[in-house]
Amino acid sequence: MREPKSTERRGLPYLIEIATNLFPIWILIGMILALFSPSLFSWYATGKVLGTSLIVWGLAVIMLAMGMTLRWEDFRDLLRMPKAAGIGLVAQYLIMPSLGWFISLLFQLPTPYAVGLILVGCCPGGTASNVITFLAQANVALSVIMTTCSTLAAIIITPVLTGWLAGQYVPVDGWGLFLTTFEVILLPLLIGMSLHKGAPGFVERLLPVAPLLAVLVITLICSSIIAQSASAIMAAKWQLLGSVIALHGFGFLLGYYFSKVMGFDAIVNRTIAIEVGMQNSGLAVVLAGQHFANPLTAVPGAISSVTHSLLGSFLAFIWRLSKNK
């Protein structure tokens, strides 16, 4: 590999790189603004284009950008290492539900918060994990496959584990989960990969701004979710915030070392850690609102959406810098 010239580290591409590396700061700023001025972001959570939520469009754009960085060969290579995807799936539904149950007891959470935290732990990996994996320069293809597998498995596993650990049964719209997976993950990803193959010149011009675009969109999504629940979050005690931080913090940690014990390299370890530590909190909020009478059950999911993004962003920030060095 040739040494980069000094001029290559100047100009607009360099500024875009700096702005991308500061993504934890943008998410934190968005969270603070959403808490104190919810109207700045609430429009995004409620807005629709062509009958589809702006959040769905945002995630689709992110997946399209990530798809443009992938080759079909990346997925063929993964078929030669199915152990990583399998271990990641086991870690997802072994570590997080157990942590949700244990931490709710450890922090002695009130019933609605305890049920909400367990529900978050029992949900599949979220599409935000694919974004963080992308920004961390880990294995995006593996992350996407793990998200897809855990989402499809959630049709059965999420209601069973939630019913067992939280003492109530939560029905899940399996067909809706499948359609969302296809629309938000698989379809844009396939389009992006097709562009990578069929229009490499066009993709090459877009790739420098793709990470920054992902940062801006995920900041907008997280801020809009917080804006919707701002009053409940402001009223929540530190007991609840600490429990959510503990859930995701130990999720990242245990996911990494679970993978490491299984003999994988650092890139796979980071990918599995991100996938385990980041949940589909939006699904948890929706299920809590539809299947539990107490509205406070949805609050852990709302806090989780920003907490795991912040923790994952800081991890990706550190890993991205270490890889660049």
Automatic annotation (TrEMBL):
This protein's membrane topology, according to the annotation, is:
Multi-pass membrane protein
The alphabetized UniProt keywords are:
Membrane, Transmembrane, Transmembrane helix
Q: Which residues form the signal peptide?
A: none
Which compartments does it reside in? Answer: Membrane
Which intervals of the chain form a coiled coil?
A: none
Q: Which InterPro entries match?
A: BilAc:Na_symport/Acr3, Bilac:Na_transpt, Na+/solute_symporter_sf
Instruction: Please give an example of a GO cellular component term from this record.
Output: membrane
TM ranges are 12-37, 49-72, 84-107, 113-133, 140-162, 174-194, 206-226, 238-259, 271-292, 298-319
Q: Which superkingdom?
A: Bacteria
Name assigned to this protein = Bile acid:sodium symporter
